[in-house]
């Protein structure tokens, strides 16, 4: 995931000019590589060994992309002036580079695409969070379905053997419903499930916060509108009272003829 979206990290850090310049140049190329990675991984999983030669080339492509991401991490680490601070704030990047088992999660760099879309959205924080959450949810769900299917379908005790099963399991897991009719039985599948459970709880929390902020915004707007209307009516009443008071204290000879 792009470190520009890491909590507590500003997009333009004046203390890391070389790192910021590299990230600006590499952001979009790495994003398109993530798109290609996800497409190749999906093709590899969904085709289920129908074309062995194609699978070999897809596997080579996946490892090449993973190597590019690894090089990107190393370059950023070298360019960073405060290296331990960089490592602490980019632990997710380190995990993805160090554990090829979860390398498909690197496709979450597609959040950059939603950042570009977000430029055309108003300055409402609710609108921004809505785009990020919606895009991230779709990417996490699709990646998790592919990953759990890849891990489970070769096991003789597996209950997740088709992409439809994987999507249904992902939906029930990320929503924290968990019917139990589909569940992972392999170690890798359970690791994916654990990550998805944590992600599902976090996403639900953000969605709940977005909905709550929408209600608060609407209520605050209604209250502001009522308050403004009340003030207008009070000002009009004051003017009428002042006019009546002036008419009452006006001398008789000054009355208009």
TrEMBL record:
It is a multi-pass membrane protein. GO terms for biological process: action potential. Residues 138-216 form the Potassium channel domain. It holds the Pfam family Ion_trans_2. It is found in: Membrane. GO terms for cellular component: voltage-gated potassium channel complex. GO terms for molecular function: voltage-gated potassium channel activity. Keywords: Ion channel, Ion transport, Membrane, Transmembrane, Transmembrane helix, Transport. This is Voltage-gated potassium channel. The chain crosses the membrane at residues 28-48, 60-79, 129-148, 160-179, 191-216.
């Amino acid at each position: 995931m792009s470190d520009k979206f890491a909590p507590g990290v500003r997009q333009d850090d004046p203390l890391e000019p070389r790192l910021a310049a590299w990230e600006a140049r590499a952001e979009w190329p790495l994003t398109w590589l993530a798109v290609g990675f996800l497409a190749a991984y999906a093709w590899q999983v969904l085709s289920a060994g129908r074309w062995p030669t194609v699978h070999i080339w897809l596997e080579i492509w996946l490892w090449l992309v993973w190597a590019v991401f690894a090089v990107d991490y190393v370059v950023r680490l070298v360019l960073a002036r405060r290296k331990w601070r960089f490592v602490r704030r980019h632990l997710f990047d380190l995990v993805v580079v160090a554990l090829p088992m979860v390398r498909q999660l690197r496709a979450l760099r597609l959040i950059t695409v939603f950042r570009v879309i977000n430029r055309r959205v108003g300055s409402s924080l609710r609108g921004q969070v809505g785009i990020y959450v919606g895009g991230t949810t779709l990417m996490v769900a699709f990646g998790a379905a592919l990953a759990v299917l890849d891990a489970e379908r070769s096991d003789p005790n597996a209950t997740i053997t088709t992409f439809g099963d994987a999507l249904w399991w992902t939906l029930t897991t990320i929503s924290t419903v968990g019917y139990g009719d589909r569940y992972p039985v392999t170690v890798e599948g359970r690791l994916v499930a654990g990550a998805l459970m944590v992600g599902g709880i976090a996403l639900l929390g953000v969605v709940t916060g977005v909905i709550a902020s929408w209600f608060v915004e609407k209520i605050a707007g209604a209250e502001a509108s009522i308050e403004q209307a009340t003030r207008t009516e009070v000002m009009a009443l004051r003017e009428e009272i002042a006019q009546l008071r002036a008419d009452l204290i006006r001398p008789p000879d000054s009355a208009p003829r």
